[in-house]
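Re: Re: ligand-bound prediction request (bumping)

Still looking for help on this. To restate: I need the protein modeled with 1-O-phosphono-alpha-D-glucopyranose bound, output as structure tokens. Inputs repeated here so nobody has to scroll up.
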Amino acid sequence: MQVRKVVIPVAGWGTRSLPATKNLPKEILPVFRKPAIQYIVEEAIASGLSDVVFVNQQNKRIIEDHFDHNLSLEQYLERTGKTALLEEVRRVAEMANVIVVRQKEQRGLGHAVACAREVIKDEPFAVMVGDDLMFHRDPGIHQLLDVFHNEHMPVVGVMEVPRDKVSRYGIIDAEEYAPGLYRIRGVLEKPSADTAPSRLAIVGRYVLTPEVFSHLEAASPDASGEIQLTDALAGLARQNRLLAVKLYGQRFDIGDWVDYLAANIYFALQDDELHDDLSARLRDFLPPVR
Ligand code: G1P
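Reply:
Sorry for the wait, this slipped through. Here it is.
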């Protein structure tokens, strides 16, 4: 069955990026010329997904506004003959069908996904976490959709992380049945380095089937009152209903300042007009290599 919908939870407070995110959603922080969330939506569209379901809250409405027309701005750009910019802002407004559902309390990633249940109904769907930007000529979520269409099973995207970072992620216990493809036996949310079953971390890309909703309903809140998506994934794994695929590409966690700044530089350096000047400025800051 064709996957058309992607759920993008965006209701979180972005505490890692305060004070920048006091009144500005972290998804709107620019990464070079575009808000971070635009890269996520572009990855979804480039992968053949058409319906974007934002799970949002009342204080972050400018996220969905970014994917709508701004008529006053468009009129101004038209009047002043700024045709290229006009086309660009219109393209953003028209790139996706946007559906917004509200997460009225911030009770975790699993709770956010469950909020989309009425919109998803009985179709398979993708989930993309707004913090994780990914770049490869084969877009990250497309790599998962390929596996889903061949195997007809829920699938998560994983990447190998260093031992000192495993405690930031959901970590899978899995058997590799083909290069880069895994059958998941179990999954642990943010384990310590000593208890982690592997260094394969779930990186914010999922293709799921509606069966996940009954697992979410059955999941109990964790110590901080949150419903973890990982608990529902563990339920699927117990029924041998969960695969993982190792993703290729560059990944930036924009809630992490090093990754956020690196993402800006990565994109700016790909711009022919900026490349030389920016490289020269960066060399000014960095001490010479001895
Ligand atoms: C969430 C998931 C975690 C996953 C991570 C990927 O954690 O709970 O399993 O590895 O996203 O970004 P969060 O970053 O919301 O704490």
